[in-house]
Amino acid sequence: MRFPIPLSIAALAGLITFALAGAAFARETVRPARPVAIPALRQVVEHYRTLTWTFERAARVDRTPTSFSYRHSIDRDYLQWAIDTWTRRASSARDVALRRVHRRLAVAIPKPPRPHSALARRIAYTRRLTLELRRIYPGSVTRRYATARGRTGKATLRLWQRRLAAATVQVLRYGHRPLPPALSSAFLCIHRYEGAWDSNTGNGYYGGLQMDRRFQSLYGRDFVVRWGTADNWPAWAQLQVAVRAYRSGRGFYPWPNTARACGLI
Q1: Cut 0.85: pTM above it
Q2: 241: closest CA among 179, 173, 196?
Q3: 216-229 tens-digit pLDDT
């Protein structure tokens, strides 16, 4: 009968160190394993308070009141309580705002991970949802934006949380409902015969559907105020204005030749 070979002192020490490191990492996903400076704790409270208010603004609900007492406190237990409280409030406000995004823009919102899920999972969820909203408005995502990271895992999470809150506000302010597929296909066909989305050749017609200034003011005054002439509008805004004109009773007649080429008239 063989007996197990006893571990060397060095190997045993290595196993103990590995186990302790794993336990510390597990705690890191929820609360820090070592004392954190008071100013750093205050900054975390401030982060989640700001997140809460930003999501509440997106959801169009009243801001959660605060006395800002955490900004002067030196009580670690109180500051940790404030972190936990504002984290819950931020999660709740986020869910309310995202439900509004779903109702208004028909965007599928995945179920969020639990507040104390693994850090990597929370980062992945927040980043993925942020990029999805950014693709709605402003309509594109750069590689640099998509790959941004903080100095630590928690810094990365907070970075993407701030971006998600900002993207939620922006998409609710400037985003648009998906166009009916049939009308979207029809106007994309017209666009292929008209011009580039940023077209401005000096002929008095602008953008991918060659709208004149009167047409833009009549059906897209909100976009004119925001961006100027149609050659500066994102493609979705130009399509949105075309659909407005169509639904006003004008149909495809503002584009007689190209609509005919598409078999629409």
Answers
A1: no
A2: 179
A3: 999 999 889 988 99
Tokens of 206: 């602008």
Judged against a pLDDT cut of 50, whether residue 13 lies above it is answered with no
Query: Which residues on neighbouring strands pair with residue 206, listed in sequence order?
Result: 200, 211
pLDDT digits (tens, 9 = 90+) for 190-217: 999 999 999 998 999 999 999 999 999 9
Task: Judge whether 11 lies within some domain.
Answer: no
Helix, coil or strand: residue 1: coil
Q: Do 219 and 103 lie in a common domain?
A: no
pLDDT in tens, 170-195: 999 887 777 888 999 999 999 999 99
| Per-residue model confidence (pLDDT) at position 138 | 78
* CATH number for the domain that contains residue 243: 1.10.530.10
Whats the size of the chain, residue-wise?
265
Residue 126 has φ and ψ, to the nearest 5°, of -65, -40
- Spatial separation of the C-alpha atoms in residues 67 and 218, rounded to whole Å: 48
Amino acid at 248: S
Same domain, 127 and 256: no
Query: Rounded to 5 degrees, what angle do the CA atoms 204, 206, 212 make?
Result: 55
Q: Confirm if 245 and 257 have CB atoms less than 8 A apart.
A: no
Domain encompassing residue 236: 181-261
Peptide bond into 138 cis (omega under 30): yes
Q: At residue 28, does pLDDT exceed 60? A: no
State residue 127 phi and psi, 5-degree precision. Answer: -65, -45
Domain boundary among 126, 145, 174: 174
Residue 15 lies in a domain: no
CA distance 72 to 255: 64
